[in-house]
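Here we describe the complex-level prediction in full. Unlike the single-chain runs in Section 2.1, the four entities below were treated as one system.
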Amino acid sequence: MKNNIKVQRAIHDMTQADLAEKIGVSRQTINAMEKNKYVPSTLLALKIAKLFKIPVEDIFILENSD
Amino acid sequence: MKNNIKVQRAIHDMTQADLAEKIGVSRQTINAMEKNKYVPSTLLALKIAKLFKIPVEDIFILENSD
DNA sequence: ATTAAAAGTAAAACAAGTTTTACATATAGA
DNA sequence: TCTATATGTAAAACTTGTTTTACTTTTAAT
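The structure predicted for the assembly as a whole is:
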């Protein structure tokens, strides 16, 4: 699974810290997600999608390996 | 956060075990999700949404308390 | 070149998701 | 009523997500 969080942040001109604060997680959580260190919870995915006003599927993309 | 998994299973005439097997988790994981015992990973959410051919947001719904 | 802000990284601790095994309860059909 | 299938539940073990603290590196602007 990959994700577009970095791009969406750029579009919305947000730092990792900004995004972290908006959705109520630590900055390291955002950083680790962007670096594909781990798969976030559905709660985080929904909050991020809501914030960026796009579907979860447009941010988090399933890959063949999943 | 709540979810419609039970309804979607009914629409697709699947048991908890069926769904579990299709997306590669244990039956207890499906049961626990339906009973709101915990929030699944985004990977699971995407797989379930793909299987039912509807958006993640139509299955997992944010609530005010989230 | 220096500085400030942003991003990357790492380890320990803690919280939460998932599996496994096992049993109890419910439901529908024979 | 008996039986098979589906669902609910629980505890232990394991895996993974998340936080906290703290430090390093990068980037962009001065």
